[in-house]
Design a protein that fits this description.
By secondary structure, the protein is mainly β. Helix content is 11%, strand content 59%. It starts with a helix and ends with a strand.
């Protein structure tokens, strides 16, 4: 009996020893797939086990960083008027009716309390309505010409549309009630035309269109100023290049200003 007991104890100790040795031989690998953490364990006896758990972030921004590192994307609208700096050959532009609407996708990144970087991509329209209602803009092979219409003119204008990209660094007051931004922009022309409206001898209104582009430059570039006070935001765009293509029209630079909504 005593001999049997000794043999059983020896077998149990041997089994426990091998178990310890098997555990010592187990190996664990940890890796991640997307946001999932995976643990693979190979035990000493050859068996494998897998554990899956969400990946934990090792960094958490401070409250100050959370407050200032803000990003937002939304639509904004420019509602303004156009004019140009004329030479002696350019017709005078009537402000009322020379509208400058624009639709912009605006992305704002605010890395600090007093600084914001705005990126704008959008479409804008130039409309230049002439003071002289009888002055008709026409296109020929040499360029754009302005002729007096023999009749009763009602409205005369030329227009062009552009796809634009702007980068506006902006400084802000502590409470955000004052904002000042200045930056560059560039645009690519999408289209353009001329329009002339007149009354005939019977008093009927008629419209004449120049369907082709009126020699507006294919590219535009310049500087944009944005000023905000409280809930009101204003803009001013100034083209550094000529509005018309070289030797195709008078040398003028386009200016637009108005409200940002």
């Amino acid at each position: 009996m005593k001999q049997t007991t000794i043999i059983l104890l020896a077998m149990l100790l041997s089994s426990w020893s091998f178990g310890q040795e098997d555990e010592a031989k187990s190996r664990t690998k940890v890796f991640t797939v997307f946001d999932m953490q995976i643990e693979k364990t190979v035990h000493g006896d050859g068996k494998k086990t897998w554990e899956f758990s969400p990946k934990h972030k090792t960094f958490e921004a401070t409250e100050k960083e959370k407050k200032h590192n803000k990003e937002s994307t939304d639509l904004s609208f420019d509602i303004g008027i156009n004019t140009w700096l004329p030479s002696g050959e350019a017709p005078k532009v009537r402000p009322w009716g020379s509208w400058n609407p624009a639709i912009n996708l605006r992305h704002a990144y605010q890395p600090s309390k007093n600084f914001e970087l705005n990126t704008l991509i959008g479409v804008s329209w130039y409309n230049f309505k002439f003071e002289d209602r009888n002055l008709q803009a026409l296109r020929n092979n040499q360029g754009i010409i302005f002729e007096d219409f023999d009749g009763q003119g009602v409205k005369s204008k030329i227009s062009a549309s552009y796809l634009n990209l702007a980068l506006i660094p902006t400084i802000k007051s502590n409470n955000g009630n004052f904002r000042l931004g200045v930056g560059p922009y560039a645009g690519f022309r999408l289209g353009g035309r001329g329009k002339f409206v007149y009354n005939d001898d019977n008093g009927n209104r008629n419209k004449l269109f120049e369907r082709a582009n009126m020699f507006a430059n294919n590219f535009r570039y310049g500087g944009r100023l944005e000023i905000g006070v409280g809930e009101v935001d204003l803009f001013l765009n100034y083209d550094l290049n000529d509005y018309f293509q070289k030797d195709k029209g008078p040398k003028v630079n386009a200016i637009s200003f108005g409200l940002i909504l």
